[in-house]
Design a protein that fits this description.
Distance between the termini of chain B: 49 Å
Strand content of chain B: 15-25%
Distance between the termini of chain A: 18 Å
Oligomer: heterodimer
CATH superfamily of chain B: Alpha/Beta hydrolase fold, catalytic domain
Number of domains of chain A: 1
Order of helices and strands of chain B: EEEHHEHEHEHHHEHEHH
CATH topology of chain A: Nonspecific Lipid-transfer Protein, Chain A
Shape of chain A: globular
Number of strands of chain A: 5
Strand content of chain A: 25-35%
Radius of gyration of chain B: 18 Å
Helix content of chain A: 25-40%
Structural class of chain A: alpha+beta
Largest sheet of chain B: 8 strands, mixed
Structural class of chain B: alpha/beta
CATH superfamily of chain A: SCP2 sterol-binding domain
Shape of chain B: globular
CATH topology of chain B: Rossmann fold
Strand order of the largest sheet of chain A: 3-2-1-4-5
Number of strands of chain B: 8
Mean pLDDT of chain B: 96
Number of helices of chain A: 6
Helix content of chain B: 25-40%
Chain lengths: 122, 286
């Protein structure tokens, strides 16, 4: 499912335009499963699934499977509707060099929300 | 091609606050019971445009909103360029009462959202005699910081972009696109460090947990309205405040978020109308 990020992000011209100064690698963790997402100038060039031996990343977003599942539902309930809501409830851990994450927060929020079922409210 | 004008009128007021000269932008519309509106942290009085343009409200209310110093079209005081802006409870209270006096508002209804909702609780506790009724939107007694506030004001993160991105999820999911992005635009326009400086009051200085239970609603009625999708001040936190204050009336607004008057004015007004009718029917000026 995480692999779909590449096509869904890259096909959104408005999103990739806003991300054009962003080049980074970040880690998504769903329970114990990990993915490395590589972004070059706003376009996702690869999504690689772990496990990894020596992963390098600028920042990581880690949450249990049930929390990501609620976040990626079609009509998320209050508290599960936004990355910052998950962080507020202390179920999503953001760590590493968060300057990249915060400087491009709208990009990352809108990218990850694209994994909700098609037609879901943003 | 025909232009239309809104009934809102804006003026710049010159007033000394905390011993310093200030230039403050004040907007108003309507006639009748004064309804003084307080905007959220990092935004400005435009959040109340929906109320000021609603004939059902302005037919019998004089709706007034000022931009706090440093916000919107109000200026920071001279000398600001060498200072760090930090809002305190004492300054916020003084500002509201002094502006009320300057505008000769006699026992207005005061309605504030978020930081405005928090200061509404302070006003209910410390100055109930000055108000006909107090309405707190998204009002909680305290919020723990849940992100590093330094990201709001540093040269390698755009302050406007990050402020809007942080609060974007606080808007309810069904808010009309136009109003959602108008609300976020106001955040994108905030001056450097201003949202952060407001949050000093919201997250540190304005903590009223140990005193909120002493609010006496017999001295001034208190109404609390909170949106369901607000994770900054959750409905549970508003309900907890209401439970600790005998006589406080609470409404949880389904589908709405942290900026009800701005993100979805129409739906918000449906919740607000019964409250205003109750205030105007039951509580004449004392």
């Amino acid at each position: 499912m995480i692999e779909q990020l590449k096509e869904k992000v890259n096909s959104d011209a408005s999103l990739t335009r806003r991300g054009r100064f962003l080049t980074t690698m970040f880690l998504i963790e769903i329970g114990t499963a990990q993915w490395l997402v590589s972004i070059v100038e706003g376009r996702i060039v690869s999504v690689a699934q772990g496990p990894f031996v020596m992963p390098s990343w600028t920042f990581a977003l880690r949450a249990p499977p049930e929390e990501w599942e609620k976040f990626w539902s079609a009509d998320p309930r209050p508290g599960s509707n936004d990355l910052m809501a998950l962080i507020k409830r202390r179920v999503l851990k953001a760590e590493g060099d968060l300057q990249v994450f915060m400087a491009n927060l709208r990009y990352f929020k809108e990218s990850l929300e694209k994994l909700r079922p098609a037609g879901a409210a943003t | 091609m025909s232009a239309t004008f809104e009934p809102i009128v804006g003026r710049y007021m010159h007033l000394d606050l905390f011993g310093r000269a200030h230039r403050i932008y004040v907007e108003e519309a309507g006639q009748g019971t004064p309804l003084l509106c307080l905007h959220t942290a990092g935004s400005d009085g435009r959040q109340y445009r929906g109320l000021m343009n609603h004939p059902g409200i302005t037919a019998n209310h004089r709706v007034i909103a000022f931009d706090m110093p440093w916000h919107g079209k109000s200026s920071p005081p001279s000398g600001w360029h060498d200072e760090e802006y930090q809002l305190t409870s004492a300054q916020y209270t003084t500002m509201i009462l002094d502006i009320m006096t300057a505008l000769q508002l006699d026992q207005p209804i005061v309605m504030g959202c978020s930081i405005g909702g928090r200061i509404a609780l302070h006003l209910a506790l410390e100055h109930p005699e000055r108000f006909r009724a107090i309405i707190g939107l998204q009002a909680g007694a305290h919020v723990d910081p849940y992100y590093d506030l330094n990201f709001l004001h540093r040269p390698d993160v755009h302050g406007g972009e990050v402020s809007a991105a942080i609060v974007s999820g606080l808007v309810g999911p069904k808010a009309p696109v136009k109003e959602r992005w108008e609300t976020l635009w106001h955040y994108m326009q905030g001056g450097p460090g201003v949202f952060k400086g407001d949050l000093y009051f919201y997250k540190i200085d304005g903590d009223i947990r140990d005193r909120v239970g002493r609010i006496d609603t017999r001295r001034c009625p208190l109404f609390l309205l909170s949106g369901e999708y607000d994770y900054s001040c959750t409905p549970e936190e508003t309900l907890a405040v209401a439970a600790s204050i005998p006589g406080a009336e609470v409404t949880i607004m389904k589908g709405l978020g942290h900026f009800p008057m701005s993100e979805d004015p129409q739906t918000f007004i449906e919740h607000l109308m019964p409250v205003l009718e109750k205030i105007n029917g039951r509580y004449a000026p004392r």
